[in-house]
Amino acid sequence: MSTTHPSWDIPPAWKPALEAARAGGTLFLIGETDSGKSTLAAVLANEARAAGRHAAVVDADVGQSSIGPPACVGLANVERDCVSLSELTAMAIDFVGACSPVGHLLQAATSTAALVASAREGGADAIIVDTTGLVSGGVARALKSAKIRLVKPDAVIALQQDDEVEHLLASYRSSSRPRVLRLRMSRAVKPRSREERAARRQRSFADYFAGGRSVELSWKDVPVENSAWTNGEPVPGHMRAYAEERVACEVLHAERSADGIFLIVEGRADADGLRTLGESFGGTARAVESASLANLLVGLLGETGETLGLGIVEGIDFRRRRMSLYTPLNDPDRSRGIRLGSLQLARDGTQLGSGGLSAVG
Fold first, then answer.
1. What's the rounded Cα separation, in Å, for the pair 163 and 156?
2. Which among 7, 61, 232, 284 counts the fewest CB atoms within 10 Å?
3. Could you report the per-residue pLDDT of 74-87, keeping only the tens digit for each?
4. pTM, rounded to two decimals
């Protein structure tokens, strides 16, 4: 029997999707921003649960997360009926690093696949995967096809007003799996403005970081996963001084690898000097301004690369090779790695800018 709520408008044409939820398996949702995907995810999760399924939801909408904080993929078991995904409690998150998958396609796809795998390992036999509203252009095709290939859903459920997501479905026209179900958007969908979506993200971040505390971690114990930083050999003082002469600014940190030399600098490095420096080290020279690390959002990782929680970089001691973070994580000493994001945040969730280690050179 269907589980419904008065606020939902469930068109009769949605019947095949409800049947798919009752049958179980992995259902992958596609639709534009404000198409009602999150509400549909809740409808399908309740339908699966009503049929006796062990239902779970993977929320891969990193910009408008309902399960866990923004910039993450979230996983929740559906243990009771819900009207909204925000009523569910995150049992795991995986840090993507940004509130848009653009520029983070690999991490967005692998994070989604990782949490679908976790749901399956946890015994879920009905998994609903909600996704971002990015559906236009080649970037959307690359992202959605990568996720579908990694997740291997039983059905792709497309919510659309006209035919705006058909280009994402074309490659599955002759496939037996995944099955494609096309649904029209509900009349009850209420669009949100860009400002409303930004305010929602700010509140979500603020709620997540409320009650956090400042901690200090060592680079040696907690290396950076997705950067050259902390993964090379620190250069001695005289070589750092030579680098400063070449790039014409203060070098706070320098390390070398087989690729060349990586610098964190105060100010802007001279481009010609970087080229000369790279040649001296038999590779390339890359420099990152230290300002791009201030208030940077990061993910704290466990022993197997799982995301334990998030933090905000609030200070770096380059001499002692230690980093100060603000985090709500109760046991940050469990951290075995850090994944850098590309957002700079205040403690109250206000976005201060875009940062990270996108090096020049």
1. 15
2. 7
3. 999 999 989 899 99
4. 0.92
